[in-house]
Amino acid sequence: MAQEEGPLCVAEYSEKGGVGKTSITSGLAAVAAERGLRVGVADLDPRGTLTDELGLDEPEHTVNDIFFVDTSKKAPPPRDPAEIVQDVFVQAGPGWPSNVKILPVDRDFANRENDPATAMEFRLKRAIWGLRDEVDIFFLDVPPRAGGKLAGAALLAAKQAIIPSTLTKDGYIGVQQGLRSIAHYNGPGCLNPGLVVSSVVRSIVPRKKDISAINRHWEERLIEEFGHLVFPSSIPLYAVRETARTACRPITAAPGPHAKSLVRTYGLILDHVLKTAKEQN
Ligand SMILES: Nc1ncnc2c1ncn2[C@@H]1O[C@H](COP(=O)(O)OP(=O)(O)O)[C@@H](O)[C@H]1O
Ligand SMILES: [Mg+2]
User: Fold this and answer.
1) For residue 95, is it within any domain?
2) pLDDT tens across 131-181, in order?
3) Is residue 58 within 8 Å of 31, Cβ to Cβ?
4) N or C: which end of the chain has fewer CB within 10 A?
5) Which domain holds residue 200?
6) How far apart are CA 251 and CA 91, in angstroms?
7) Ligand 1 atom closest to Cα of residue 262
8) What integer pLDDT is reported at residue 203 of this predicted model?
9) Any domain includes 2
10) Torsion angle in degrees (nearest 10) through CA of 173, 157, 232, 266
11) How far does the centroid of ligand 1 lie from the alpha carbon of residue 185, in Å?
12) Mean pLDDT taken over the chain
């Protein structure tokens, strides 16, 4: 059955943690909201950093409700994710603009990785499709687990992937492995041929005077191997990012030139995402 397209869906993905996935997700959500877009985010990382950052504490319903399928003998047939999502999708906390909504996560979501085969990887795409009339752009904060079902669900739902990378060996490996995993979804004959890697973004980049020889080495490797994908602007390391995160406020609400600089960079990345989306249509 042909299905009308859901909202533009962008996954922040790397197979390493600590590279800036959550920060880019919340930064892009903040700038997209400032432009008046109706923004959705999904926290798919059971550690729940994004959920916390968007000001939600112990949400009643979470992405777990969308993914969980009871396989016990007497269980009723699974409900449609497009219906379940209506209960899960909630307004971000009071520090955030009213046009930002979230599918929050809880720790139990980690258990889904070990569930029996229930085709759960397809449920997120369907859930997001169910929100097509209320969302313009969706950002997915993907957990770093290689080959996991939760990451797989994101790579099936997304039209674009952004791979953040610190200038470290971990950052580089996260990109390399991430691209390999993505090829299992958008390669010839695969299930999500429309998925494109919109960029590899150098993130949490120290100021010039603080850049180490190791940073320079890994930056060179990134450009050498993935040069065509590396976004021209990088995301600077500024303490204000941590301040905004701790205050559960968007970076667009933070004062000072460093916050402005971060917002400008997230804005350039969003421009690129929107331009890529136009080319995809
Ligand atoms: N531009 C930045 N400047 C300073 N700190 C940052 C920046 N981006 C991210 N961080 C911090 O670095 C750490 C890792 O970032 P995070 O986005 O949580 O990575 P991931 O989601 O890939 O694990 C967090 O403590 C985060 O607040
Ligand atoms: Mg994270």
Assistant:
1) yes
2) 999 999 999 999 998 889 999 999 999 999 999 999 999 999 999 999 999
3) no
4) N
5) 8-276
6) 17
7) 1
8) 98
9) no
10) -110
11) 27
12) 96
- Residue pair 135/91 in contact (Cβ under 8 Å)? The answer is no
The count of domains in the chain is: 1
Q: What is the pLDDT of residue 3?
A: 56
* Residues 67/105, Cβ–Cβ less than 8 Å: no
Ligand 1 interacting residues, C-beta cut-off 6 A: 17-23, 49, 203-204, 235-238, 241-242, 245
Residues that place a CB less than 5 A from ion ligand 2? 21-22, 49
Q: What ligand 1 atom has the least distance to the C-alpha of 25? A: 17
CA distance 242 to 51: 15
- Joined together, the tokens standing for residue 52 give 């916390």
Secondary structure of residue 163 in the 3-state scheme: strand
Minimum-distance ligand 1 atom for the alpha carbon of 164: 22
The closest-lying atom of ligand 1 relative to the alpha carbon of residue 24 is 17
Structure tokens at 260: 């402005």
pTM of the predicted protein model: 0.97
**Residue 48 C-alpha to ligand 1 middle, in angstroms?**
14
What is the CATH classification number for the domain harbouring 188? 3.40.50.300
User: What per-residue confidence (pLDDT) applies to 1?
Assistant: 44
* Nearest residue (CA) to ligand 1, atom 23: 18
Judged by its nearest atom, the ligand closest to the C-alpha of residue 26 is 1
Strands 90-91 and 100-103, sheet pairing: antiparallel
Burial class (CB in 10 A: 0-12, 13-18, 19+), 88: buried
Instruction: Identify the band that residue 120 occupies on the pLDDT scale cut at 50, 70 and 90.
Output: very high
